[in-house]
Amino acid sequence: MEKASHLSVILDLSPTQWHLSAQSSNQYPLSIHSFLSQLLAFLNAHIASKHENTLAVFGAFPGKSVMLYSSTDPVADDVPPADANSYSSFKVVDFTIVRSIMNEFDALGNLDEEPPCALVGALTKALCCKSISAHFHSPNAVEDPAVLPDPRILILSVSPDLSTSYIPIMNSIFSAQKLKVTIDVCKVYGPDAVFLQQAAHLTGGSYIFLERRDALLQYLTMSFLSPPALRQVLAVPKQDKIDFRAACFCHKNIVDVGFVCSVCLSSNHILFYVVKLWFTYMCTVFCQPVPVCSTCR
């Protein structure tokens, strides 16, 4: 813990998915109120781990992404004063995040058709926030990169995969690799997210699918509280198998078998994964053979 840690948390705040998650017909129902209560305890634990730790929280709402809280921003004037039984820093985090979420939910109103959550927008904002936080933390970052905070991103997902977001997510993954940002994923509700599995694997993070959603805080504390520097000596759980399927560019379907052009490989930027010897990332994948390549004709 000699090095500070910067944590960016991305919350998937789809009203429809959280309504389904809270249904009593589920084996382990989890409402958004219980989710926020356990999440805030985890965020407070991160702040308490080291005084220099920084925190940023982003919300992925239907059709837009919003920064809910940043420890580098000045404290708002309307935050209630801390009482004798609360720590002021914890109260600022709790009040700011909950108020921001409630304001965004009120602004949504009644939607006839809920648009997809802007998870990619929140992810790109989190990557930009990492750079801002690093330079804010150390003006001499170029001369002494060792003093930069250890950056990581935690995504709490409840929505299924959106095949149209395949390319933006992969671009975000490549950016995270260059910035040396670890992406962790906690799948709180819904089926496994194929693209988020790949994001965690390619950046050295952990992907956890909650089997007991009533133990969310225990999952968060045991799996995601430790910074990347400490994970070399801890047995942090990782996924047993990874779904490497891609989305086709013609119909935006996730395919098991894809086709690429034999002349240009349908791409100008191809990433070779040396260990498993495959190159599906960033290739223009078709779900069926096409007579003429749309890239090189």
From TrEMBL:
GO terms for molecular function: zinc ion binding. Keywords: DNA damage, DNA repair, Metal-binding, Nucleus, Transcription, Transcription regulation, Zinc, Zinc-finger. One of its GO terms (biological process) is regulation of DNA-templated transcription. The keyword Transport does not apply. Pfam families: Tfb4. It is found in: Nucleus. The keyword DNA damage applies. Belongs to the TFB4 family. Component of the 7-subunit TFIIH core complex composed of XPB/SSL2, XPD/RAD3, SSL1, TFB1, TFB2, TFB4 and TFB5, which is active in NER. The core complex associates with the 3-subunit CTD-kinase module TFIIK composed of CCL1, KIN28 and TFB3 to form the 10-subunit holoenzyme (holo-TFIIH) active in transcription. Component of the general transcription and DNA repair factor IIH (TFIIH) core complex, which is involved in general and transcription-coupled nucleotide excision repair (NER) of damaged DNA and, when complexed to TFIIK, in RNA transcription by RNA polymerase II. In NER, TFIIH acts by opening DNA around the lesion to allow the excision of the damaged oligonucleotide and its replacement by a new DNA fragment. In transcription, TFIIH has an essential role in transcription initiation. This is General transcription and DNA repair factor IIH subunit TFB4.
